[in-house]
Amino acid sequence: KKIKILRESGFDRYGNFKSPFYYRETHNYKIEACVISPEGKKRNISRENIKRIDVAGKYFRYMVAFPGLEIGSIIEIKETVESDYPILSGFWNFAEEVPTLRSQMIFRVPKGTNALFNFVPKDAMKKPEPTQQGKNDVYMVTLENVPPYVDEMYMSPDNIGNPTIYYHVWMISNNDLAAALGVEPQQIEGRPYTMNWKDVAEVFGAYFDHETWKDFEGSDEYRKIMGKDIEQFRSGFDITEEKFDELLSWFHSEFEAVDDDLFYFWSNPEESFKLRKGGPWELAYTLKYILNEICVPTEVVLVRDADKGLLNRNMPSYTAFTHPLLKVEMMGREIWL
Questions:
Q1: CA–CA–CA angle 116, 122, 128 (5° rounding)
Q2: Burial 303-333 (b: 16+ CB within 10 A, else e)
Q3: Residue 318 near residue 200 (C-beta atoms within 8 A)
């Protein structure tokens, strides 16, 4: 990625870079960054300006600071992600805060690996077809003259200004992977190349664990905002049906539910404390946080919409479930939210 600084506002907007989050057990990540001065002199970013942030002992991201920027400077970032785990899931946003002349997504997978693509908006681009390069299938999507995206966390599906592609690569067995790579299964060294439901449960468990998000940018601010609201219920809160219904009515009136299709799963759910809106996962997280703070224990139960078809027990996946429910046991009753 290359970004040219055209005005002073670009110092704050592009002077710091944050990578996506990666799972430390399955991903190797490398980042190289430099600044090219207006005179064409290249300066590599030193390691002291590149920081790794670990989250919940399982995930990590990198942050890069670009000191000494000038108007006319060019920021250059090169990221390399390697994984021995044949599950690839993520997204590529083709728009930036400024008009984009050309944006291209390319990724390679072993030949024969199935890939699923979803688009926002649905008609923003054509489904990519793979081309074969040696033992790989290569997918490529290119968009040109992309307008800047709207600076709003939740956008209308009709907003063509923020085209995004979401990609998912299916899990394959050791034997299938070996065949795709053209090697013997023994060369895979017996490593686990298929995920299980325990892996899925651990990821969602981490999402709903408040400790996961405490080190995220803005989390302290968001929790202070929510603390004022919680205090009104914490003070003298009695576990009665009337009080519980009062809390739920307040929650429904205060927080706006946003369409599932517009929700980005790995955004910081604590932002909902400030925004007062969120998708089903964010709102479940927020309500669970509130109930835990007033000593009402909850359990998260993941469910799948009936119209999505039966759950394939042999295909563990993060996308198998469509939304969460909260289970509360109080006053001898079982309450589902």
A1: 40
A2: eeeeeeeeeeeeebbeeebeebebebeeeee
A3: yes
Instruction: Report the DSSP beta bridge partners of residue 138.
Output: 108, 131
Report the alpha-carbon angle 229-234-240, nearest 5: 115
In the block, residue with structure tokens 């289970």: 327
Give the CB-side neighbour count of residue 219, counting CA atoms within 13 A: 13
pLDDT tens column, 22-79: 877 777 888 999 999 999 999 999 989 999 988 767 778 898 999 889 999 999 888 8
Residue 77 host element (H or E): strand 74-83
Question: Under a CB-based contact definition with an 8 Å cutoff, are residues 175 and 188 in contact?
Answer: no
CA 112/CA 132 separation, integer angstroms: 10
Q: What is the dihedral of CA 263, 267, 271, 277, to 10 degrees?
A: 0
Q: What secondary structure letter does DSSP report for 19?
A: P
Whether residue 17 contacts residue 33, with contact meaning beta carbons closer than 8 Å, is answered with yes
